[in-house]
Amino acid sequence: MKRSLFSLLVVLALLSTPQTAHAADVYEAESATISQGVVESNHAGFTGTGFVNYDNVIGSYVQFSVAAPAAGTATLTLRYANGSTADRPMDIAVNGTTVATGVSFPVTGAWTTWATKTLTAAVNAGGNTVRATAASAGGGPNLDSLSVTVTTPDYQAESATIAQGVVESNHAGFTGTGFVNYDNVAGSYVEFRVTAASAGAHTLTFRFANGTADNRPMDIRVNGGLSAAAMAFPGTGAWTTWTTRTTVATLNAGTNTIRATATTAFGGPNLDRLSVAKQAGVFHHPGVLVSRDQLDVVKARVNGNVQPQRAAYDAMVADSAASLSWTPRPRAIVECGPSSNPNLGCSDEREDAIAAYTHALRWYVTGDSRYAIKAIEIMDAWSGTISDHINSNAPLQTGWAGASWSRAAEIIRHTYSGWPADRVNRFAAMLRNVYLPEISNGSPNTNGNWELIMMDAAAGIGVFLDDRAVFDKAVGIWRGRVPAYVYLTTDGAFPKPPPGSRFDTPAELVDYWQGQSTFVDGLAQETCRDFGHTGWGLAAAVHVAETARHQGLNLYAEIQARMTKALEFHANYDLGAAVPSWLCGGSVNDGLGPIAEIGYNHYATRLGLSLPKTKQLIETRLRPTGISHFLAWETLTHANNP
Q1: Helix (H, G, I), strand (E, B), or coil: what is residue 75?
Q2: pTM of this prediction?
Q3: Which residues are 56's β-sheet partners?
Q4: What is residue 280's predicted lDDT score, i.e. its pLDDT?
Q5: Residues 236, 206: contact at Cβ < 8 Å?
Q6: Model confidence at 4, in pLDDT bands (50, 70, 90)?
Q7: pLDDT at 2
Q8: Distance in Å from the first CA to the final CA of the chain
C-alpha cells in the first residue's frame, strides 16, 4: 500500500508541474557504506573498480551518500546482476524512510549479465542517503552502481507575464511551446509566478539564447525587490544556441514573483524558461564569525560589567566608528593600487564596513534601534552605489571589505526586523555581483594572506546568501591554502605549494617564503616578510574556521597542529625572544596586531590546550583588541566566549 501511494504522488507531481532533469550522478557501490557484504571484481561487466556481493541474509545492505543539486523528484537507477535462479528483492529507503518495499531484482541469466532497476523518490537539496536492503534470505543481487537524476520545477517564459516582448518559435532548441523575444528597449520584462514549498534560498536558472555579440543584461527582481542587478546574459553565438545563467534568491513560502527586466536598449535575450530549486543545506543564523549564543554572552557580560568584555566594549564605544554621526562615503568604483596607492575609496570602504559591523554589535548589546538603523544606512549607501573594484589590490580590498560587510549584514538581518526586504535583496545582490567575482576563485600566486582574507570574505558571504556552493568552494580553497601557509615538519623538507600556483620547485618555494631556507614547525610563508601580514593570514584562516564551526563543520581540528604552533612561534618573537641567525637572516619585523583572540579562545578556552606565549601576548600587549582593515573588536566578541 505504501508503495502504491508513493507512486501515485510522484505521478501527480510530474503531471502538475513542468520539470527540468539535471545531469545524472553515478555512485559506485564499492564506495558506499556496506553492511554484511563484500567488494568483489570477479564477474566482468561492472563499472568502477568492482561491485558489492551481498551476504545471503535478510538485512544486508548498501547505503549510498547522494548529493542532490536541488530538492525535487529523483530517478534512482540501480545497476545489478543476479546469476542465481531466484528473485532477490530489496527494500529501498531514502533518508531513513522506506519508499519502496520488496522491489524485484529478478534473475539476469548470469553474474556477468547486468541489468537496471529504476524507481522514483523525493530527495532534499544537498546530502541524502539511499539504502538498498536485502528483503530475503538470499541477500541482495550483486550491486554495481546507483545513478541519480533529479528533476526540479521549471516555468516556461511563454506562459509568464510579458511586457514589451512576443512569444516566438522560429529558433530551434527551445523547450515548451516557444520562447520570449524581448523588444529592443530598456524596461521590457518577463515576470514568472513561482511557488515555493518553503521559505529560504533558491537557485534561479534562466535558460536563454543571445545570437548577438552584445551582452543583454537584466535586473532580476524577486517579489518587487532587486535580487541581482544587471545580471549578464552574454552572446551565445547563435539564436539556436541555448545556455543558462544562475543566481540565488530568497523566496517566500507560497507564491512569489520573479521578474527579469532588460536594462539596456538592446532589450533582453530570447528567454526560454526559468528553473527553480531549493538551495542545499541549512545555515545557522546569525553565523558569520559570531553566533547568537556568543552575542548573548557578550551582551550579558557587558551589561554585567564582566571583564574583559566591559573594557573592550568601552573601547569600541569610544571609537569614531561607533558614533551615530558616522556618515557613509560610498563610491561607484573603488580603485586600489599596490599598497592602496592610489587610494580612491579603499579606506572609505573598509572603514564604512567596519563601522556597519560596529553599529551592529552595539545594537545587539544595547537593544537601541538607532544603531541598527545606522548600520543599515551605511550598508544601503554602498549597495545602492558600488559597481566594481579595480586596480592591482582589488582582490585584497574586496576581501577586507567583504569580510566586514558579511558580518554586519548577518547580525542585522537575523536580529533586527527593520531592514526592508528590498534593501536586503539589494545588499545581497551587491555581495554576489560585485564582491564574489573578485574573490571566489582565490589567488594562488600572491602572498598567502591575500587568499585567506578572500576566503574569509567568501565564506561569510556564502552564509549570508544561504549559498552552499559559495561556502563550500571557499572552504575547499581554504583547505588547500592553510597547509601551504603554515609549515609542519611532517610536510617534508620543503613547504607545500599552494594548489594551482606556479611554485613547484625547491628554489621557487624558498623564494616564495621570502628567502627562508630553514623550515620549522609554525613558520609561515610571510614570517620573514613581516609579522603584520602574517598575522592577517593567521587571523583570516581562523575566521573561516570559526564561521564553519557555527555551521557545524569542524575545520579547527584540521589545522590544530599548524595553528597552535604558528601562534606560539610568532607570539614568542613578538614578545621579544632573541631571533636565531637561521630565521629571516637573524631579525624579524614583528608586530602581529590584534589577531590572536579567536584562535586562542578555541584552542585554549574551548579545548584546554596550553598556549602560554599566546596567552601572555594577548594579556600584556593586545587586549582589548581594536580594528585593522578586516579585524574588529575580537576581545569583545570572543575572549573566553564558548
Answers
A1: strand
A2: 0.66
A3: none
A4: 57
A5: no
A6: very low
A7: 32
A8: 50
